[in-house]
Amino acid sequence: MKTLMELLNSFWNSPVGPKTAHFWGPAVNWGIPIATVVDTRKPAETINGRMTTVMCVYSALYMRFAWMVQPRNIHLLICHASNETLQLYQLSRWASAHGAEERGSK
């Protein structure tokens, strides 16, 4: 069984460890889903439907990238899967708000 120091050393020197962009890219990218969680508390009328759609496409493309890149970047995949889920939720809120607006104006 490896000691804690050996485990930390192997993580530090791994192809997806903190010495690589495979680690820091997803770490910094978590700011997007965190901001989206904060935005879920705002009124649905403030959601930009086009931008939310773009973010959905962006996350879907990068989920594929994270799966296909070698070494496979599970950290990035999880980050973008989280963002995709949150953006789809925001898009559903936007669609509901605009559907309600259209029904109310008739």
UniProtKB/TrEMBL annotation:
| Any Pfam family the entry gives | MPC
Could you confirm whether the keyword Protein biosynthesis appears in this record?
no
One cellular-component annotation, GO = mitochondrial inner membrane
The listed locations are: Mitochondrion inner membrane
Membrane protein topology class: Multi-pass membrane protein
Which UniProt key words apply to this protein? Membrane, Mitochondrion, Mitochondrion inner membrane, Transmembrane, Transmembrane helix, Transport
**GO:BP terms for this protein?**
pyruvate import into mitochondria
Q: Which family does it belong to?
A: Belongs to the mitochondrial pyruvate carrier (MPC) (TC 2.A.105) family.
- What does the function comment of this entry state? Mediates the uptake of pyruvate into mitochondria.
Q: What is this protein called?
A: Mitochondrial pyruvate carrier
Q: Which organism is it from?
A: Sphenostylis stenocarpa
Record lineage: Eukaryota, Viridiplantae, Streptophyta, Embryophyta, Tracheophyta
